[in-house]
Structure formats: C-alpha cells, structure tokens
TrEMBL record:
The gene is gdhA. The active site is at K146 (proton donor). Residues 223-464 form the Glutamate/phenylalanine/leucine/valine/L-tryptophan dehydrogenase C-terminal domain. The record marks D186 as: Important for catalysis. PANTHER family: NADP-SPECIFIC GLUTAMATE DEHYDROGENASE 1-RELATED. One of its GO terms (biological process) is glutamate biosynthetic process. NAD(+) binds at T230, N261. This is Glutamate dehydrogenase. It comes from Gordonia sputi NBRC 100414. GO terms for molecular function: glutamate dehydrogenase (NADP+) activity; nucleotide binding. Belongs to the Glu/Leu/Phe/Val dehydrogenases family.
Amino acid sequence: MSGGLTGRFGERMEVCEVSFFDEKVQDLYDEVVARNPGEVEFHQAVREVFDSLGAVLVKHPHYADSGIIERLCEPERQIIFRVPWVDDAGAVRINRGFRVEFNSALGPYKGGLRFHPSVYLGVIKFLGFEQIFKNALTGLPIGGGKGGSDFDPKGRSDGEIMRFCQSFMTELYRHIGEHTDVPAGDIGVGGREIGYLFGQYKRITNRYESGVLTGKGLSWGGSQVRTEATGYGVVFFVREMLNARGQDLDGKRVVVSGSGNVALYAIDKVHQLGGRVVACSDSGGYVVDEDGIDLELLKQIKGVQRGRVSDYAEKRGAPAYFVSSGSIWDVPTDIAIPCATQNELNADDAANLIAHGCTIVAEGANMPSTPEAIKAFSSSGVLFAPGKAANAGGVATSALEMQQNASRDSWSFEHTELRLAQIMRGIHENCLRTADEYGAPGDYVLGANIAGFTHVADAMLALGVI
Ligand code: NDP
C-alpha cells in the first residue's frame, strides 16, 4: 500500500484491521484520482480528509459498507457555463463560469464565488469539497458548494465588473435560491460584486429574495460582522488554541499573508487582542512593518484605491519596507496566519517558520499549506489549525445572515460578534474532543476532518441512498 494513510494509529489498533481500512481508503482515493483526472487541488483536498478516515472506519465500519465516502466525493451537480461580456473598448470577452453543488444533506448548498484567472473545475471542486466539512463543523444547517470564474477583475473598471457580474448571474440565477443554493464572496468577489450580482438576480426574478446571496451591504439585507467574520473568526480560533494552553495573544508577534478581506480583518482582531502583526502581502510581494501594520492605511490602499502593498511601504515610510521576491514566511513570528490562497506555504516555508520559533499556524485561507508543510508542523510540535475549522467564521456568519433574512430582522454588531465567537469556540472544542476520542490529542486536522465527516455522513445515511 502506498501512502500509509493512518499509519500513526498503527501502534494503537489491530495492525491487520488498520491495514485493511487503510487499503480500502487508498483504493477509494485512487478511484477519485482516476474519475477526476488533472484536478490536482481536488485530489489534494480529498487526500487530506482521507488521511483521517482510516481511524473512523476501524471504529465505525458501517461507513465503509454504505458507499458514503464515494458518494461524498461525487458532487450532486456541476454547472459550467459561458459568460460573455463587453469590455470598455467594446470588445466581446468570454469567460467560463462554474457552480459546483456538492452536498445538500445538511441544508442548501452554501459557499462563495471566486473570480481569479487560476479558476478551473479542479479549484472549484477542492473548495466545494472543503466547504462540506467546514459547514458541517459550524453546526448550522448549510450544505456545501462553491463557484466562480476564470475572470480576472484586476485592472477592470467598475463598469466592466458590473457587466461581467450581470452576465454571470444571467445564467447562475436559474440554479440558486434561498432554499437551494446560496453563494457569497471569495477571492475577487467582495461587497461591490455581491451588489451587482444581487441586483441582476432581483431584476431577472422580480423577487426581493434577500437570502439568495450573503455578504450583502448592511442597508440591503446584509449582516453586521459578515465583512469581518472570516478574519475575526480565525483569530478567535487562535485565541481558543492559546487559552486551552493557558496563554493569550497579548504581546505576540504575528505574520498574516494576503491583504484582502480575510487578511485585513485578521490583522484588525489581532491588534484588538493585544498582538502585533508585523507583515502582510499580496501577489506582488510582502511588506514588513515592525511598528505593526497600520490597518487604516492598508485598508485605504487595498480596499479603496485597489492598490498594492508596495504602495503601503512607500506611504508608510521607515521602518516599513517592501520585499518583491522571497517568501513572507521568512519573517520571524510567534504565530502565522496564511490568508491569501491555496498552497502558498510549502515545506521550505514551514522549515523557516519552525526555525524562527513559530508555535501556531492557523489557516485563514483555504488549503494554504501544502501537505509537506503540514507534516513538518505536526512532527515538530507546531499547533496547526486547518482552514476548514479555523476559517469557518465567514460561512457561519453567512448562515446568521440567512437567519436574519428569513426572520426579516437585523442584529446588532455586538450580538452577531458574540455569536461568531461562540461558534468558533464550539468548533475548537469539537475538534479537540474528537481528536481526543480518536487517540490523537491536539491534532486539529484529524479532529476537524472526523467531526465534519461524521456529521454529514450521518445525515446522508438518514436520508437514504442520496
Ligand atoms: P481577497 O480577494 O479579498 O484577497 C485575496 C488576497 O490574497 C489578496 O491580497 C491577493 O493579492 C492575495 N492573493 C491571491 N492570490 C494570490 C497568489 N496566487 N499569490 C499571492 N497572493 C495572492 O480574498 P479573500 O480574502 O476573501 O480570500 C482569501 C482566502 O481566504 C482564500 O483562500 C479564500 O478561499 C479564503 N476564504 C475566504 C472567505 C471569505 O469570507 N472571504 C471565507 C473562508 C475562506 P492580490 O491583491 O495581489 O491579488
């Protein structure tokens, strides 16, 4: 057998039993790769979950007999469509749109839309697959889905963004609905894009169906704290990791990659809780600011002017400086919070972080750490929180937005933030409890994968062969 899927449990369980289930999981994984050729990010996301499943199958063999794992890996529906639009020069442009409705056992499909040139089916499927378990971990009634386009919003005018969003929604509208599928934002899709998408949905359907999209503006159906939720949530999760070990964020040095929605509000919450973020980045490089990142300046540059972090270093002046090559993970830190994109933190980066004394890594982005990096953290005792647990605050608050829309209510910032903090505490407890139950104390990856899997698998079994 290649891979040794649950080798670490070998000492504690019947060797023949473990190897039987490891082989079963390996066969299932080989089948996923064969059925979904070329979708490397999807394979990676499946592998990460499968790495935890051998232990579950030993304890609960009925999951192996029911075909539940095969069913989980096959999306319920995959939609791919043409998105034609006209640029400012009058030229017709064509992009490809995607919506993968992965699993609706727990509720309507829920997950964001990503607009980025790297988007193809394999990226959307990895994100959708992750979303199933993440959404299950929140304990809220939401299934898993994801969508997006290979459209590159960088350098596009407001008019071009609007026309693209309108064309995208002109096809997407027929597949979504507040009880069916509820998209939100992700990379390249923020409040402005959700506005254009919602406006077009409303026009086509003649329905003010607030619950069809989340991440809306506060004056037209949005929720307090949704903008901040993913970044705040990941820092709440870090706070739980520290508190569980008798520590807190006060005085801690933190590096946050990215400078988009998740990164900005992770920086905000770290500073509120007494830590100091000394570096952040974008796809052009990273900036180091030993005085602590000036969040208002960064928001102005990235959020309002849609500029670069290099502009931040220029405007801020010394001691801040910009580095265009190399890796942000070269910057020494106590805590690392990757918030940019998938596979942005590799084995070399992990080795650098470990050498500089980093003790906690919490994923704000989806799958930012490579499998080799995760292995390095685990073998050197660095506490590692996977995205499906640590960044679940965004989708959890989206579910709170849906609750408010359904009851035609709107909650205060304080109340919503408290709910978010409670949800993150619940996810943290669930991960630790599950890891303990499976004999791997402190293993957040195992805890998150198994707790998410059993929740959704049990619901699917209860619903018959679906
Ligand atoms: P944004 O588009 O707001 O920001 C993305 C940031 O990451 C930007 O700073 C961008 O830099 C940087 N980035 C993107 N691609 C690359 C790359 N290839 N190399 C280096 N930097 C890159 O997205 P979000 O903040 O919303 O999302 C960030 C991550 O968090 C994603 O993995 C997303 O899936 C995940 N996430 C988001 C949630 C949300 O609520 N928004 C919820 C849960 C997870 P540049 O400006 O140069 O493009």
